[in-house]
Amino acid sequence: MTITRRYALALGGGALALTGLSGLPAFASVADDAIMKITGGAKVVEGGVDLTAPEIAENGNTVPVAVSAPGASVITILAPSNPSPAVATFNFGPLSGASEASTRMRLAKTQKVIAVAKMADGSFHTASAMVKVTIGGCGG
Amino acid sequence: MIFPKGMNMISRRDFLQASMAASALVGASGFGNWGRLAARQALTQDQLLQFEATGNVTLIHITDIHGQLVPTYFREPSVNIGVGSARGKVPHITGAEYRRRYGIKDGSPSAYALTYDDFTSLARGYGKMGGLDRMATVIDAIRAERPEALLLDGGDTWHGSYTCYHTEGQDMVNVMNTMKPDAMTFHWEFTLGSARVREIVQGLPFAAMGQNIFDVEWDEPSDLFLPYKMFVRGGVKIAVIGQAFPYMPIANPRWMFPEFSFGIRDEHMQKMVDEVRAKGAELVVCLSHNGFDVDRKMVSRVKGIDIILTGHTHDALPEPVLIDGTILIASGSNGKFVSRVDLDVRDGRLMGFKHKLIPIFSDVITPDPVVTKAIAAERAPYLDQLTEVIGQSDSLLYRRGNFNGTWDDLICNALIEERDADIALSPGVRWGPSILPGQDITREDIFNVTSMTYGKAYRTEMTGKFLKTVLEDVGDNLFNPDPYYQQGGDMVRVGGMAFRMDVSKPQGSRISEMTLLKTGELIDPAKSYTVAGWASVNKGTKGPEIWDLVEGYIRKKGHVSVAPNKNITVVGA
Question: Domains in chain A, please, with CATH?
Answer without folding.
Answer: 8-131 (2.60.40.2470)
